[in-house]
Amino acid sequence: MSTIRAVIRGCGHYLPERVVPNAEFAATLDTSDDWIVSRSGIERRHFAAEGEYTSDLATHAARRALDSSGITPDQIDAVVVATSTPDFTFPAVATQVQAALGIRQGFAFDIQAVCAGFVFALANANGLILGGQAKRVLVIGAETFSRIMDWTDRGTCVLFGDGAGAVVLEAVESDGTSDDRGILGVDLNSDGQYRELLYVDGGVSRSGTAGVLKMQGREVFRHAVEKLAQTATTALDRAGLGAGDVDWVVPHQANLRIIRGTAQKLGVPMEKVVVTVQDHGNTSAASIPLALSVAAARGQFQPGDCIVTEAIGGGLSWGAVVLRW
Ligand code: UT7
């Protein structure tokens, strides 16, 4: 039975110029390159410059995604930005990106599901396309987590980075089988009882400040592998596919040990897993579109490849999207 699928037409990413190696933290904190690499896999990350904001990162990534898709700004019906570090409390970063790209039609809004934000944004954009609300959607993950770090907390400030990634989705008439290109399966979850494991201790209504990130890393880790493997399996199942059909996993890039553990639990070998955490650190909602775009630029994906994206973050919120390239 013929159906509409949301197909990725192009992708792009942007990283701020400043690269911060692990050694820089050892100068001011009781930490070491050895500890950071062995516990997280992170070797370096990028930090935005003074005067460089989330909407700037998002706009650069979006321009590159549009260029690679051959789709022009006047053809975009919706802009969706996943972020937890917006320039302003309001309006949405997405409206600023819309303006910067000269898009005057359609609508734009932000999604806040922290590190799972891009998966939630992709799923929502897919829903807009399947529901006939939009034909072409720009979906962006963009963050400046360096702005919400506690620089005295070695358990968190060495882990996060800034960046942005974007994809252009387009509605395509398809056969309605699991061989179709585009988004084939989605699974989203949240469980708000775990707020204290990972949160920011300020906000508009509560403190009137932006706050800083607090994380019980070991506890988040404990939830991560099991929930990520489970959500990826559910999304694959909904797509009518199994682990044996997977060509690539593009996981949220928080910790190499979580990435490895999840791949093992899923039964997918590490040769099929895109890993960028060593170069970007944890860029929250930006990490999956960044990894996707880096892998695409390396020529790793072939048309028709089955790709699984999965992420978990504050909330807790977690989810997966299965798509065919
Ligand atoms: O993206 C959103 C989701 N977030 C995540 O997925 C993050 C999940 N968690 C993690 O990635 C890991 O838990 C961490 C990388 C944050 C920490 O690794 P860990 O193996 O769980 O270490 P730990 O928190 O159990 O800490 C072990 C030790 C502690 O010392 P004691 O209590 O054993 O004496 C920490 O104080 O390591 C200490 N430690 C550090 N030592 C040197 C914590 N941070 C550092 C540091 N340098 N930067």
Automatic annotation (TrEMBL):
Listed GO biological process terms: fatty acid biosynthetic process; secondary metabolite biosynthetic process
Listed Pfam families: ACP_syn_III, ACP_syn_III_C
CDD domains: KAS_III
Metabolic or biological pathway, per its Swiss-Prot or TrEMBL entry: Lipid metabolism; fatty acid biosynthesis
GO CC annotation: cytoplasm
EC number: 2.3.1.180
Superkingdom of this protein's organism: Bacteria
Subcellular location: Cytoplasm
Region ranges (ACP-binding): 253-257
Molecular function per GO: 3-oxoacyl-[acyl-carrier-protein] synthase activity; beta-ketoacyl-acyl-carrier-protein synthase III activity
Enzyme class: transferase
UniProt keyword list: Acyltransferase, Cytoplasm, Fatty acid biosynthesis, Fatty acid metabolism, Lipid biosynthesis, Lipid metabolism, Multifunctional enzyme, Transferase
InterPro entries listed in its UniProt record: ACP_syn_III_C, ACP_syn_III_N, FabH, Thiolase-like
Residues covered by the Beta-ketoacyl-[acyl-carrier-protein] synthase III C-terminal domain: 236-325
Residue numbers annotated as active site: 115, 252, 282
Family: Belongs to the thiolase-like superfamily. FabH family.
PANTHER family attached to this UniProt entry: 3-OXOACYL-[ACYL-CARRIER-PROTEIN] SYNTHASE 3, BETA-KETOACYL-[ACYL-CARRIER-PROTEIN] SYNTHASE III
Function: Catalyzes the condensation reaction of fatty acid synthesis by the addition to an acyl acceptor of two carbons from malonyl-ACP. Catalyzes the first condensation reaction which initiates fatty acid synthesis and may therefore play a role in governing the total rate of fatty acid production. Possesses both acetoacetyl-ACP synthase and acetyl transacylase activities. Its substrate specificity determines the biosynthesis of branched-chain and/or straight-chain of fatty acids.
This protein's name: Beta-ketoacyl-[acyl-carrier-protein] synthase III
UniProt source species: Roseibaca calidilacus
